[in-house]
C-alpha cells in the first residue's frame, strides 16, 4: 500500500515587475490608498497639535514646563516641515538607485513608527528633537516613493485611469487628515501628549501593516543602480530638471503660505470666537475644515469649474497652478483682515477663518494635485521618484522660507517685527509677486500633455 503523497506548499507569488494587463484599476492601488490614509492620519494628527504642544506642554528634564514663545514655535514648526519635505530627495535616490521603492517604503516606515512613539514617551526638548528627526527621516524618505508607486502600477491599457487614481490618492490624504485633525486636539486636552502622540503612532503601525499586506500585488520597478547616475546626468534629464525647477520654486512660495494654516492660523484662531452652532472648536481643530473643503471642491473643480473655464480657453496644468497661486493671495488678505479686527479689540467669528480655508483649499487643489500629476508626467521612467522628490522639495523650501522669516522678525523679547496684519500682508505680497512671475515662466515652458511613459 503506497503512502499518500504530501501536497507541496504553494509557492508564494513573485512580485510583479511590469503592470498587469487590465483596463481596470491595478490590484495594488487599494493597498497604497489604505496605507496613505493611515499614514496621513499619523502625520497630520501629530502636526496639528505640534505648535500647541511646544507653546503649552513642553517640559524640561525635571518635569517642569519649558514652553516656547509663539514666534519660536512657528520657526521650529516650519523647520521640521521643511526637513520632512527635503529628505524625500535622499529617499528617492535610495529607492531609484539601491533598494527599489517597496523596500524603501517598508524600512523607512519602521523608523517613522519609532519617531512617533518617541514623541509619545518623552515630552522634553530631547524627545521632541529625537522624535521629529526620526519622523522626518521616515516620512520624508517614503514620500516620493509612495506617490511614484501609484504611477508605476499602470500600463498602456489603463493609463487613462491614472488621474483618477491620483485623485483617490489625494482623497485618502484628506480623509485621514480630517479625522486626525479633529481627534488629536481633544486627546491632547483630555489625556495629554502621551496619548495624543501615541494614537497617531498606532495608525503609522497600521499603515506599515497595510503596505506589507499588498507586497504581492504591487508592481515593483527594479532599482536602476549605476544606470540611475547615468540617467540622472544625461543631457535629456538635466534639461527636464532645469525646466521644472522654476515651476517648483513658484510652488514653494505657495507652500510657504499654506503650511501656516498649522502655525500662524492656529495662533490666530486662539484670539477668535470659536463657538459655532453650539459647538466650541479648539484652535488646532479648525484645520479640519481644510480636508472637508478639499473633498467637496475636488468634484466641483473636476466636473464644473475646469470644464467651464475650458470653454473659454484651454485649462492646461500650468494655468491651473497659476490660478491657484492668485487664490492663495486672496486667502492671506482675508487673514490680514481678520488680524486687523483683532488688533482693534474685536473677537471675529471663526467663520471668517473658514472663509480663508475655503479659498486656500481651492488653491491647494489647483496647485498641489496638479503639480503631483505634472511632476509624474515630466519625469523619465527611471527618474520618477527623483522628480517627485523635487516636487516635494518645493514644500521644504517653502517652509524653510517661512521658518527663516519667523526667526528673522523676532525681537529680543520674543515679539514680532511684523505685528498683526502686517505679517499676513507681507506673505500675500510675496505670493502676488511670485504669481505674476509664474505667468512668464509658464508661457515659456513646453508642457507634456499626459503622464505617459517617456
Task: Provide structural commentary.
- The chain is mostly helical and 454 residues long.
- It has a single domain, classed as Up-down Bundle (Growth Hormone, Chain: A).
- Helix content is 70%, strand content 1%.
- It contains 15 helices and 2 strands.
- Strands 1-2 form a two-stranded antiparallel ribbon.
- Helix 6 packs antiparallel against helix 7 and helix 11 packs across helix 13.
- The longest helix is centred in the middle third of the chain and has 30 residues.
- The chain is globular.
- The C terminus is likely disordered.
How would you sum up this structure in a few lines?
With 454 residues, the protein is mainly α. It contains 15 helices and two strands.
Q: Label the CATH architecture.
A: Up-down Bundle
Q: How many angstroms separate the termini?
A: 63 Å
How many domains comprise the coordinates? 1
Average pLDDT rating: 86
Radius of gyration: 23 Å
Number of DSSP strand runs: 2
Number of helices: 15
Strand content: under 5%
Structural class by SSE content: mainly alpha
The largest beta-sheet arranges its strands as 1-2
The poorly predicted ranges are 7-13, 450-454
Tell me, what's the shape?
A: globular
Largest sheet composition: 2 strands, antiparallel
Specify the helix fraction band: over 70%
Briefly note the CATH topology name: Growth Hormone, Chain: A
SSE succession: HHHHHHHHHHEEHHHHH
Can you tell me the CATH superfamily?
MFS general substrate transporter like domains
* CATH domain class name: Mainly Alpha
Amino acid at each position: 500500500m503506497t503512502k499518500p503523497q504530501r501536497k507541496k506548499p504553494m509557492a508564494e507569488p513573485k512580485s510583479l515587475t511590469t503592470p498587469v494587463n487590465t483596463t481596470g484599476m491595478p490590484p495594488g492601488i487599494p493597498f497604497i490608498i489604505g496605507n496613505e490614509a493611515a499614514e496621513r492620519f499619523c502625520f497630520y494628527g501629530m502636526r496639528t497639535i505640534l505648535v500647541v504642544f511646544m507653546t503649552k506642554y513642553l517640559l524640561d528634564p525635571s518635569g517642569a514646563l519649558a514652553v516656547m514663545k509663539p514666534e519660536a514655535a512657528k520657526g521650529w514648526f516650519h523647520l521640521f516641515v521643511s526637513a520632512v519635505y527635503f529628505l524625500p530627495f535622499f529617499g528617492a535616490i535610495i529607492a531609484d538607485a539601491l533598494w527599489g521603492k517597496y523596500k524603501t517604503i517598508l524600512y523607512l516606515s519602521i523608523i517613522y513608527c519609532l519617531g512617533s512613539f518617541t514623541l509619545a514617551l518623552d515630552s522634553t526638548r530631547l524627545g521632541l528633537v529625537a522624535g521629529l528627526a526620526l519622523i522626518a527621516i521616515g516620512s520624508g524618505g517614503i514620500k516620493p516613493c509612495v506617490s511614484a508607486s501609484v504611477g508605476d502600477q499602470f500600463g498602456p491599457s489603463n493609463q487613462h485611469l491614472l488621474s483618477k487614481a491620483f485623485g483617490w490618492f489625494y482623497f485618502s490624504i484628506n480623509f485621514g487628515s480630517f479625522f486626525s485633525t479633529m481627534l488629536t486636539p481633544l486627546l491632547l486636552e483630555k489625556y495629554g501628549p502621551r496619548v495624543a502622540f501615541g494614537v497617531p503612532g498606532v495608525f503609522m503601525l497600521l499603515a506599515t501593516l497595510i503596505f506589507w499586506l499588498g507586497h504581492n500585488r504591487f508592481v515593483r520597478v527594479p532599482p536602476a543602480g549605476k544606470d540611475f547616475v547615468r540617467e540622472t546626468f544625461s543631457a535629456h534629464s538635466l534639461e527636464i530638471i532645469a525646466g521644472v525647477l522654476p515651476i517648483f520654486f513658484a510652488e514653494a512660495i505657495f507652500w510657504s503660505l499654506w503650511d501656516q494654516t498649522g502655525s500662524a492660523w492656529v495662533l490666530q484662531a486662539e484670539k477668535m470666537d470659536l463657538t459655532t452652532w453650539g459647538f466650541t472648536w479648539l484652535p488646532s481643530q479648525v484645520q479640519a475644515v481644510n480636508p472637508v473643503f478639499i473633498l467637496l471642491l475636488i468634484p466641483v473643480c473636476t466636473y464644473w469649474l475646469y470644464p467651464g473655464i475650458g470653454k473659454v480657453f484651454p485649462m492646461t496644468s500650468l494655468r491651473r497652478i497659476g490660478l491657484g497661486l492668485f487664490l492663495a493671495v486672496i486667502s492671506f488678505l482675508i487673514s490680514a483682515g481678520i488680524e486687523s479686527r483683532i488688533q482693534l479689540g474685536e473677537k471675529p467669528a471663526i467663520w471668517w477663518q473658514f472663509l480663508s480655508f475655503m479659498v486656500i483649499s481651492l488653491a491647494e487643489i489647483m496647485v498641489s494635485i496638479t503639480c503631483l500629476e505634472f511632476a509624474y508626467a515630466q519625469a523619465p521612467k527611471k527618474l520618477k521618484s527623483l522628480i517627485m522628490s523635487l516636487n516635494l522639495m518645493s514644500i521644504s523650501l517653502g517652509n524653510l522660507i517661512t521658518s527663516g522669516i519667523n526667526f528673522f522678525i523676532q525681537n529680543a523679547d520674543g515679539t514680532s517685527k511684523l505685528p498683526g496684519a502686517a505679517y499676513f500682508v507681507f506673505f500675500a505680497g510675496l505670493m502676488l509677486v511670485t504669481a505674476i512671475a509664474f505667468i512668464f515662466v509658464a508661457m515659456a515652458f513646453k508642457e507634456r500633455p499626459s503622464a505617459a511613459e517617456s
